[in-house]
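Hi P.,

Sorry for the delay on this. The queue was packed all week, but I finally got your sequence through. Input first:
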Amino acid sequence: MELKQKIVNLTTREVTYLFGYNNYWKITLIIFGLTFLTLFLLTPFQFHDMEFGLRMTMSSVHGLVSIISAFLGHQIVIFICPIGKKAWTLAKELLVLHLAIFFGVIFLFIEAHFFCFMKFNGENNILQLVWVTYLVGLVCYLPLRHYLRANYYKSLSLKTKQLSDEKVQIQILDKKKNIYCFERDDLIYIESFGNYLKIHTSAKCTHQSQLVLHMTLTALSTQISMESAFFRCHRSYIINLDKVERVEGGVRNTKAYLRENHIIPVSREKISELKKILQDRL
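Then the structure:
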């Protein structure tokens, strides 16, 4: 049976990020709504003498210049980080958001002092407006991103389940945010080489019996921690317990003999635990 591997098109970059690499119009909507909420809803607590019409005008004008703020913030990040879509990260997204807010505050300062839309009673009011803007941004951004991430994993689970209604599927997310799906019965063991892993699969998977992924063994252990069929017998190896035929050797040279003539070393501190698990599985 050929190895069932699938790189899911619906990646974390497209689902869990609010605007991604080349969608600055979404940043515009976010910053527009953010500045509107901050200025129109919250400023009455700092600026009691502002009339409704003036507050509405100020909110609208500052919301419009937020379009420029969002565009500048996004383009600066693209300029200082000349990367492609695949290298887009949450850190770069937050940098864009902060730069957009920063430019928004600058425009607010210009509006206030040169166009007299708002009268400030000193620097304290400006600082208040800045931290309130960031606070509103976090309150709006974090729950929404959590919601999008939850939807992503839900959709990923459905896609993985559709691959097979009978076979148990194992999904692995590497550092490049690619998702790989395997049938559990196809995996024999995983070997670590620093920041890379070599996935060893059954000989019946003729086209890809060995697949190299960019991730650490610790990260993989976390992802498959709910799978009782896998056991980390060594700092550099994770084995499929269903493939273990026997465990032999002394304290210093214990080996796990797997199907298809694979021999894997077992750490001294893992010997007793491995033997107990195998005994319980009988």
